[in-house]
Task: structure prediction
Amino acid sequence: MKKIIFYSCCFVALILLSNCKDNKTVDVNQNEQYKSIDTLQELVARGSYLVNAIGCDDCHSPKKMTPQGPIIDLDRRFSGHPSDETLYKIDKNNIGPGKWIFMNNSLTAFVGPWGVSFGANLTPDDTGMGNWTFDNFKTALREGKFKGIKDQRMLLPPMPWQNFKNLTDSDLRAMFEYFKTVKPIKNIVPNPIPPTGL
Ligand code: HEC
Result:
């Protein structure tokens, strides 16, 4: 009998030990590396570095056309597809699965089998991310949800959230804090146009 009790105790102890070990598994999102970044200023600098290196401007900032090609219009940085821009006529014959994907000169409007999508306003204005919480930002970039709200529609191409979902919590936080420091710009980006609306 004593033996049975002894072995049962050993068994329970083993289970407890293995649970402890499980709890210690490193969560990739608890990025140890940035624990030292404790001031907001450092966080914003890191966010600026990431946003610039990853290239959110590509699709979220209006451009000015030069002989060398489009350059970022710094006065309207991150304000998304301009609400007053008229789209060039779309030839429906060239769009569809296996056909072409088009974009406008500013790289803020995209035409493909999904219809037309428009780069969103990421500035801290009410028409951009002004009312967003960090949770909204995380949900948009990790789960590809419109407005960062779980029961909203999925974000359309070419927003590469499938890549961005691999960013750590601390990097996402840094980017979010950076976006809060850029110039707020009022611009209501048009709703996407479904393929049937072309
Ligand atoms: C290749 C183009 C492209 C790049 C690069 C890109 N985006 Fe986007 N993004 C889009 C498009 C297009 C939409 C709008 C999709 C839609 O309406 O469904 C969008 C939507 C978003 C949204 C959702 C906005 C809303 O109102 O729901 C967020 C947030 C966002 N992008 C953040 C970023 C960040 C941060 C970066 C850089 C790390 C980035 N995007 C880079 C194309 C891009």
Residues 9-29 have pLDDT under 50 and may be disordered.
